[in-house]
Amino acid sequence: MSKKLFIKTWGCQMNVYDSHKMADILASLGYETTEAPDDADLMILNTCHIREKATEKVFSDLGRLRAHKEAKAEKGEKALIAVAGCVAQAEGDVILQRAQYVDMVFGPQTYHRLPEMVLQATGDKRVVNTDFPVESKFDYLPADSQMQGPSAFLSVQEGCDKFCTFCVVPYTRGAEFSRPAEQVLDEAKRLEAQGVKEITLLGQNVNAWHGAGTDGSEWDLARLISALSDVKGIERIRYMTSHPKDMNDDLIAAHGEIAKLMPFLHLPVQSGSDRILELMNRKHTADFYIDIIERLKKARPGIALSSDFIVGFPGETDEDHAQTMALVERITYSSCYSFKYSPRPGTPGAVMKGVVPEKTKDARLHELQALLQKQQLDFNLSAVGKTVPVLFDRKGNKPGQLLGKSPWMQSVYVDANERLYGQTVDVMIEKAFQNGMSGAIVTTEETLSTPDKKRDAA
Ligand code: 5AD
Ligand code: SF4
Fold first, then answer.
1. Given this model, what pLDDT does residue 398 score?
2. Tell me, what's the pLDDT at 454?
3. Can you tell me the distance from the alpha carbon of 220 to that of 17, in angstroms, rounded to the nearest whole number?
């Protein structure tokens, strides 16, 4: 009988990708994934440390997993509990001490060693592995075995050397590392063979990607994207998350030159105040960022833009906040993430003076989000009445409904035949909301080519 694996994933797309890879590697040991922890022989919490109360959330989930483990033990069955990801990396010892029932704690750079770690834990030996091994996990992780939808992540870069003073990533994910071009291209071809139509290249600092290309010359991300665009079945390419300092001329130009590179970019700025950007150690000014955006808009007219913002970083004044608001007004975003600053232990920001009161942070976040939401709604509304190509990558909750993405990363809901799942189809946008749009399939020869034509056209 096969063993069952339950994985709960928090945080960024990188963690989602890592969880797939863990499932892949454990499939080779006979583990099948399950949605139900009480069914599982191995339960993994893949954690994120980027925001407040991460550790508490992990402990609260661990309490629930412990109950499953004990219920299994009463039946004479064994279940293992593992904590992976960035909380494991940062607080592995604390977890092992506080939760004696946890069998395994391991960081993001060790997933390729899962088979030996599981073997140890099965033999009643507690495992802790928060190393940064010299070998790259990418050389050891197996080819994909999990079924992918039409849109897949592809990890090309990991770690970060930027050391923004609020951020734990350089400590939990380690130094910047670029995956070799050949490996990336091979994985893209495998995804293509599985029917994937859209790939999102992932990295904590993805636009810092560089390495020897397949022609022996040094490549940057723009060159890698160009090579990936030759993979025929891949119709759409995206990448995230980028740092303004690594947005080079070629990458900006690529947005105008490579048709498969989607007209959307997530380029976090964090603040509109040079003083705060300096305190954050972002290594760029607001004007530097605005200049990149202007050039991107020139290279690819209509490009949709997204960013991350932090309000209430230590020392942030009303004037600094006003500069963030002014920057948002000037750029006009299609969708953004915004957060209240929360100190992460071990980062320089955590001991900075000028802590901003919680109430002030709340008020600033409220004001910023109101503006960002208005911009997002306006952006979606501007598509009403237009025809946009939508790649259907999810099935809706209601039968007969498909969900997809526009090139500009908007969610689109359509009543459509399931047959169109995985296809890119023209949709006439009828309604727009804060978080998405809905519309109807534009009837063409192809969408009419089956007996289901009435439903498709509905
Ligand atoms: N407090 C608030 N937001 C943070 N982020 C990262 N660290 C912190 C922190 N300590 C946000 C940044 C980053 C996003 C992934 O999370 O905006 O770009
Ligand atoms: Fe964190 Fe991104 Fe700054 Fe690196 S560039 S330290 S990942 S916020």
1. 82
2. 36
3. 22
Interval between CA 171 and ligand 1 midpoint (Å): 14
Q: How confident is the model at residue 132 (pLDDT cuts 50, 70, 90)?
A: confident
Helices of type H across 282-426: 286-299, 318-331, 358-381
* Strand pairing class (157-158; 177-178): antiparallel
- Please name the amino acid found at residue 203: G
Determine the distance separating the centroid of ligand 2 and the alpha carbon of 242, expressed in angstroms.
9
CATH architecture of 141-381: Alpha-Beta Horseshoe (3.80)
Ligand nearest to the CA of 12: 1
Q: Ligand 1 test: best mutation among 12, 16, 160, 167, most atoms within 8 Å of CB?
A: 167
The domain limits of the chain are 3-129, 141-381, 387-449
What letter represents residue 285's amino acid? T
Share of the chain above pLDDT 90, in %: 75
Q: Among 319, 318, 317, 324, which Cα is nearest to 339's?
A: 324
For tokens 């490549």, what's the residue?
A: 219
Residues with CB under 6 A from ligand 1: 50-51, 166-167, 268, 270, 308, 310, 339, 341-342, 344
Domain 3-129 matching CATH 3.40.50.12160: the answer reads yes
Residues composing the chain:
458
Could you tell me the pTM of the whole model?
A: 0.87
pLDDT in tens, 72-130: 888 889 999 999 999 999 888 889 889 999 999 999 989 888 988 998 898 878 888 88
The CATH number that domain 387-449 falls under is 2.40.50.140
Separation of alpha carbons 92 and 167, rounded Å? 18
Q: Which residue has the tokens 């690819």?
A: 300
| Whether the Cβ atoms of residue 106 and residue 88 lie closer than 8 Å to each other | yes
pLDDT of residue 9: 94
**Cα(275) to centroid of ligand 2, in Å?**
18
Coil, strand or helix at 307 = strand
From the CA of 164, the nearest ligand is 2
Beta-bridged to residue 413, according to DSSP, are 403, 438
Average pLDDT score, the chain: 91
**Per-residue pLDDT reduced to its tens digit, 30-53:** 899 999 998 899 999 999 988 777
Looking at all shown ligands, the one closest to residue 242's CA atom is 2
Tell me how far the alpha carbon of residue 238 lies from the centroid of ligand 1, in angstroms: 21
CA angle 117, 119, 120 (to 5 degrees): 65
Give CA angle at 421 (267, 31), nearest 5°.
80
Nearest to 169 by CA among 201, 143, 202: 202
- Whether omega before 444 lies within 30 degrees of 0, making that bond cis, reads no
